[in-house]
Amino acid sequence: MSEQAIAPVDAQEPPYYAVVFTSVRTEGDNGYGETAERMEERVKEIPGFLGIDSARTPGGLGITVGYFRDAEAIEEWRSDMEHRAAQKRGRESWYESYTLHIAKVERSHGFRRGQG
């Protein structure tokens, strides 16, 4: 994922969707970093994409949460041909395991120090 200031995606007006991708990677990069950056660029082009949060533990567990306005935006991302090719490569070489959860967000709020 791209280097940027550390801050979560802002709270959005519900309802919207959270797509939670939790993974354990294989050893080595094997082109993963470049593809992850490209996928982040691509998903930002999807109408209804709201943002992405991502983190990886030192032990290798990764969690990426993509936020989407509606199910149609998720489907557009799911069916994107470059994304589908990256998914295939992920199953072939980048992931030991992963899970995907899609949830409808019904409540959302946030906090930032220094803001009333």
UniProtKB/TrEMBL annotation:
Residue runs in coiled coils: none
tRNA-binding in keyword set: no
Segment forming the signal sequence: none
Record key words, sorted: Monooxygenase, Oxidoreductase
Residues of the ABM domain: 15-89
GO molecular function annotation: monooxygenase activity
Pfam families per the UniProt record, alphabetical: ABM
SUPFAM superfamilies reported in the protein's UniProt record: Dimeric alpha+beta barrel
InterPro entries: ABM_dom (IPR007138), Dimeric_a/b-barrel (IPR011008), Jasmonate_Hydroxylase-like (IPR052936)
Record-linked PANTHER family: ABM DOMAIN-CONTAINING PROTEIN, BLL5343 PROTEIN
Name the record gives this protein: Antibiotic biosynthesis monooxygenase
Source organism (scientific name): Streptomyces sporangiiformans
